[in-house]
């Protein structure tokens, strides 16, 4: 049963990332190059590997929480995990598919709060799960500043 939970825990964020990545890939070579971007914009090839690693870390964190005994705090942690994953997923559509840079900035700001909330609740259940969210929080902080800069420049 634990292997099944582990595989499902990895598959959920990786699947969300793969779908969002498809939306991103369709626009990263067409619409995105036309935008004015800040000097700190990383090369496009960096995003795929970073997000893959982050989705794997998210999946491991989910597994560490999911395998703990049932409790109110665990239920809250699981709900927060799926809220932040949904916000993460929606961002790609807002930004890359629908070109709503401002709405994407609102979404990523709410996502940032959701990640912090998830990290804090995870820390009450599993310290390693919480630590696995730290690189994600840092990357989304960077992504939010990049989103804000692109919004201002365009």
Key terms:
mainly alpha, transmembrane helix, single chain, TspO_MBR, transmembrane, 154 residues
Fold and architecture overview:
- This protein has 154 residues and is an all-alpha fold.
- The protein has a single domain (2-153), classed as Ferritin (Up-down Bundle), CATH 1.20.1260.
- 82% of the residues lie in helices and 0% in strands.
- It has helices at residues 2-28, 44-66, 72-97, 101-125, 127-132, 134-153.
- It starts with a helix and ends with a helix.
Task: Write a brief structural summary.
This protein is mainly α and 154 residues long. It has a single domain (2-153), classed as Up-down Bundle (Ferritin). The protein has helices at 2-28, 44-66, 72-97, 101-125, 127-132, 134-153.
Topology overview:
Elements: H1 2-28, H2 44-66, H3 72-97, H4 101-125, H5 127-132, H6 134-153
Subcellular location: Membrane
Membrane topology: Multi-pass membrane protein
Signal peptide: 1-25
Number of strands: 0
Number of domains: 1
Described by strand count, sense and barrel closure, the largest sheet is:
none
- What is the tally of helical segments? 6
Low-pLDDT ranges = none
Work out the strand percent: under 5%
Distance between the termini: 50 Å
Q: How would you describe the shape?
A: elongated
Helix percentage = over 70%
Quaternary structure of the protein:
single chain
InterPro entries: TspO/MBR-related_sf (IPR038330), TspO_MBR (IPR004307)
Pfam family, one: TspO_MBR
Main location: membrane
Family: Belongs to the TspO/BZRP family.
């Amino acid at each position: 049963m634990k292997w099944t939970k582990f595989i499902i825990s990895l598959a959920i964020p990786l699947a969300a990332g793969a779908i969002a990545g498809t939306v991103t890939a369709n626009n990263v070579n067409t619409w995105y190059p036309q935008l004015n971007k800040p000097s700190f914009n990383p090369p496009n090839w960096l995003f795929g590997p970073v997000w893959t690693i982050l989705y794997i870390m998210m999946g491991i964190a989910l597994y560490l929480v999911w395998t703990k005994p049932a409790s109110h705090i665990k239920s809250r942690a699981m709900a927060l995990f799926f809220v932040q994953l949904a916000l993460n997923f929606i961002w790609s559509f807002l930004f890359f598919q629908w070109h709503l840079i401002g709405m994407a900035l609102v979404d990523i700001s709410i996502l940032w709060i959701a990640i912090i909330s998830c990290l804090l609740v995870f820390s009450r259940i599993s310290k390693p799960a919480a630590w696995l969210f730290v690189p994600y929080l840092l990357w989304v902080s960077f992504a939010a500043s990049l989103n804000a800069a692109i919004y201002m420049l365009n």
